[in-house]
User: Fold this.
Amino acid sequence: MNAESIWINMKLIDVYRLAVETGIKNDPRPAEDINRQLEDARKAFEKMDDDKKQYYDQERLWNPYADTRLSYGDPDADVTRVMWGIDVGTGEVLLADRLREKGQKIDALIAHHPLGLARTPFPEVMSLQNDLYFDAGVPINVTEALMRSRMDEVSRAVLPANYNQSTDAARLLDIPLLNIHTPADNCVEKFLTDEFEERPVKYVGDIIDRLMTIPEFQQAAKHNSPPKIVVGSKTGRCGEVIFKMNGGTSGPKEIYQHLAAAGIGTVVGMHFPESHIEEARKHHINMVISGHMSSDSLGINIIADEWQKAGVEVVPCSGLIRVSRV
Assistant:
């Protein structure tokens, strides 16, 4: 299957696989790295004792994104209309059920941020940031060492999570529940990287102006959430620009020292913790916050458009700004 396939009678598993395939197509890593990850998973599974295989997450055998999972539902269920939100909790599950009661067709509920089966393993996808920083000129040994420590920290932080809260609500109301995280983040990162590589900008303010030509950012601005410069000034020259849109969550703050040494002038991201802003300022790197909901929406819309081509309608909720480019 591929993102250009002509689909008939989409099943839930088809929707899921099409999202993953679109994420792979937009992944910043070389295809051989992704294939190696899947092959390593297959070898690990085959070496397991039979009594341990029941605990192995077999979606790893074809899905390279630990933060993207079908947490509840029949994979062979027909799907023509889904509700997709950036954050999905019990409230959104109840909302989907209420819409069903009112006569609306909702075949499945889609989340962006990890939940259920994807919640506790999601820090694994932070390794994608290694490729971003390596491509920016940071030695791979440096970025991997810094990222390893940060991944351990995030992994410990998510261990207490009530990972199945939304999934249990979906199960009780019999609403299929799926989440698509890194595949969508891959899409927005590639979209913006390509946009700015094809038409480079000179000043930091130009980054804001260019983002504001994109419908998702325009809509966010109408709700008082436009892109913002948090380090630097609009008249400052931006130098080499990178977009940090994927990799699960914020990476190590120590990376800014090495980005500056590699010649990076500006980092654009959905959001940054205060510690990152302080480090960027210390090392004279401009920093632009593109916006969380707007950036997530852009990546989601690229996948939602593939679903739309396949005959699946997306009903936006919970922060999703739906813009169709089909």
Q: What stands out?
A: The chain has a mean pLDDT of 95. DSSP finds 13 helices and nine strands in the chain. The radius of gyration is 20 Å.
